[in-house]
Design brief:
Strand content: under 5%
Number of helices: 6
Helix content: over 70%
Distance between the termini: 63 Å
Bound molecules: fe (ii) ion
Number of strands: 0
């Protein structure tokens, strides 16, 4: 039997986060392509549930990372930055709840298992040594979330407007989060 040529995946480069982001995006895109193959059905429920479970894992990892950063924030400006981390953690939890609820509405089950959580997530759990590192890591995670939500929204299109509207609402908040983090970083560069 002929072996079908398997696309060799690039190894994640350590030290630069941009390559990691690229691989994560490719992974998210792969599932979208699988779903698009289905014909004659408005939305492929299984694919939508799978995408939502990946988004759920991403949100949970973001909650955990922001909580860690909140408790570990110290130094100049720590108080105002920590307050921002705490607010983001709360909002990411809200997103996780919305997504879980939608998964159930679609007849699926929210995967909240800690096993494999970080590999299901698009964004990473990076602790960061300094306040600036923490903010940068959070910004990277937000940018990953923004791109994956945009891709999900584009995939779902008009096929499932309820899920799409929910994702659009979440995306708008992730964009605000990214903006908040850029402003915080600016405060350190003055
Ligand atoms: Fe979120
Ligand atoms: Fe966010």
């Amino acid at each position: 039997m002929q072996t079908v040529g398997k696309k060799t995946e690039e190894m994640p480069a350590t030290g630069t986060f941009m390559t990691d982001v690229k691989i994560l995006r490719e992974r998210a895109r792969k599932h979208i392509e699988q779903g698009a193959v289905t014909e004659g059905y408005q939305a492929d429920r299984k694919v939508v549930i799978k995408l939502l479970n990946e988004a759920l894992a991403t949100e949970i990892v973001c909650v955990l990372r922001y909580k860690r950063h909140y408790f570990m924030a110290e130094g100049i400006n720590a108080e105002s930055v920590a307050a921002e981390f705490a607010q983001h953690a709360t909002e990411e939890q809200g997103h996780a709840d919305l997504i879980s609820q939608r998964i159930v509405q679609l007849g699926g089950e929210p995967n909240l298992s800690p096993d494999g959580l970080s590999s299901r997530s698009h964004s990473e759990y990076v602790e960061g040594d300094t306040l600036v590192d923490m903010i940068k890591e959070d910004l990277v995670a937000e940018r990953i979330a923004i791109d994956s939500y945009k891709e999900m929204i584009a995939y779902i299109g008009a096929k499932d407007s309820t899920t799409r509207r929910m994702l659009e609402g979440i995306l708008a908040v992730e964009e605000e989060h990214a903006d908040d983090l850029v402003s915080l970083l600016g405060g350190f560069q003055k």
